[in-house]
Design goal:
The protein is an alpha/beta fold. It has helices at residues 4-14, 30-37, 41-52, 62-77, 126-143, 165-177, 211-223, 225-228, 243-248, 277-295; strands at residues 19-21, 81-89, 92-101, 109-116, 151-157, 180-187, 201-206, 231-236, 253-258, 299-307, 312-315, 318-322, 337-340, 344-351, 355-362, 365-370, 375-378, 388-398, 403-413. It has ten helices and 19 strands. It has an eight-stranded mixed β-sheet, with helices on both faces. Strands 12-11-13-19-18-15-16 form a seven-stranded mixed β-sheet, with no helix packed on it. α2 runs antiparallel to α10 (277-295) and α3 (41-52) crosses α5 (126-143). It is globular and about 70 Å long. 51% of the residues are buried.
Length: 423
């Protein structure tokens, strides 16, 4: 976690979406209950202690590489399909570790549970983010013995502390492959509590488009409160974590962190003696429950913007070249699309029901709709040309009233608008 998060957590102590889902019912799922019961201190801290044994895991270092080998081998022991995802960016060369538990449904939905195994130089990263990695490994070990509708990918990223480069390259390549990632559950700093309220609260950092994941998480926490005793508190998004790269490439992603401020983040004092074992186990249980429930969630409708592409420059509808903006994670420009002149937006909709229509918006303003496929629209303003930075937003409605939303950041220069006098 970037060092600003520790400041952000201390600050908080003082003070429509990509997919539509049915509200989680309050009846306990016996299978999820069984999985929760298997999370214990021995399991979680066997993984945490092993990760700590490699010492400081600065991206690109030998220690970091050795830790990646360890995580790979642990995933392999679980019978999961595992691969190294090598990346080179910003002067760094390292590997993400990706383990896949294939889903059983005909759909291609993917749920990601992630954390980062790197840390700053000289730090052990016990909380930031050894705690998240331990939660991911423990959850993967337990979930590997069960089946789920959607595919689950357990990912340990490197490069977080040097610019979230590992997650950036992975999210960019996933987008280019066309992966249908329905939700990203990122655990970053989930091992500390030093107040009564902090011991019973975990935060989820959300954007407007990911409030559905936050609501889903709240429902899960309430459902399993008698077993876990940990609630969810949604707070505004923070860019400096691995979930942000997925948001930048059009996926719904959130990250979870403990409630109490942690003064030792990114410092040599981020050591195992500061980890609250009881809280770490509770956080692991809740994160596992959220991922397991999400992996069996039925998505009534999905909509994806297929054109224009994220992170591309267009001239009068023709793609010229990609721009990554990978080093601009803090600016909101990573993955942004630049459009000069006219361009057409097109979307795909996935639903078992008939589609009523697709609505196209600039920012939050309705501009046009399309009632029949292919769902396309000439990108333009309503009353004035949409010059500068905007959001291209689409909504899809099916015959049962379900709604899905997708959006992308665009920087556009065009004179086109619907009520132009020359029309």
């Amino acid at each position: 976690m970037r060092i600003a998060l520790s400041i952000l957590l201390v600050f908080f102590m003082a003070m429509p979406s990509f997919t539509h889902y049915a509200a989680s019912d309050k009846e306990l799922n016996n299978t999820v209950t069984d999985m929760i019961s298997q999370v214990n201190e021995t399991l979680v801290f066997n993984y945490h202690d092993a990760l700590m044994s490699f010492g400081s895991r600065y991206t690109g270092s030998e220690n970091c590489s050795n830790a990646a080998d360890y995580i790979y081998n642990e995933f392999k022991k679980m019978g999961l399909w595992v691969q190294f995802d090598e990346w080179n960016y910003g002067g760094f060369h390292s590997r993400n570790v990706v383990a896949t538990l294939n889903g059983t449904s005909d759909g291609n939905g993917i749920v990601i549970m992630s954390a980062h195994y790197d840390c700053t130089s000289g730090s052990l990263g016990a909380d930031d983010d050894g705690s998240g990695v331990a939660a991911v490994l423990a959850s993967a070990e337990i979930m590997s013995h069960y089946t789920f509708n959607h595919t689950v990918r357990f990912i340990a990223f490197s490069g977080e502390e040097v610019g979230t480069y590992g997650s950036f390259t992975y999210a960019k390549e996933a987008y280019e492959r066309g992966d249908n990632i329905v939700a990203v559950i990122n655990a970053d700093m989930v091992g500390y509590a030093d107040t009564a309220k902090g011991g019973r609260t975990m935060r989820v950092f959300e954007t407007e488009r990911t409030k559905w994941i936050s609501s889903f998480s709240v429902n899960v926490s309430e459902k399993y409160m008698p077993l876990i005793d940990l609630s969810i508190q949604p707070v505004p998004n923070y860019r400096g974590a691995d979930h942000q790269a997925f948001l930048d490439y059009g996926y719904d992603a959130v990250f979870y962190a403990h409630y109490d401020g942690y003064p030792w983040a990114n410092l040599p004092e981020d050591t195992p003696d500061h980890i609250n074992h009881t809280y770490q186990v509770k956080a692991t249980k809740l994160l596992l429950a959220i991922v397991a429930e999400m992996a069996n969630r039925h998505f009534d409708i999905e909509v994806m913007i297929k054109n224009p592409l994220e992170g591309e420059v267009y001239l009068f509808g023709y793609p010229l070249f990609p721009i990554s903006g990978g080093k601009l994670w803090y600016s909101g420009l990573r993955g942004a699309t630049i459009i000069i002149g006219d361009a057409t937006a097109s979307v795909d909709v996935i639903s078992d029901k008939d589609i009523d229509y697709v609505i196209f918006c600039i920012d939050d303003e309705f501009v046009s709709w399309d009632r029949s496929p292919p769902y396309e629209w000439k990108i333009q303003g309503k009353y004035v040309p949409p010059m500068g930075r905007h959001r291209l937003v689409v909504y899809a409605y099916d015959s049962d009233g379900h709604i899905a939303k997708d959006e992308m950041d665009i920087i556009i220069f065009t004179l086109a608008y619907q009520y132009a006098p020359w029309h």
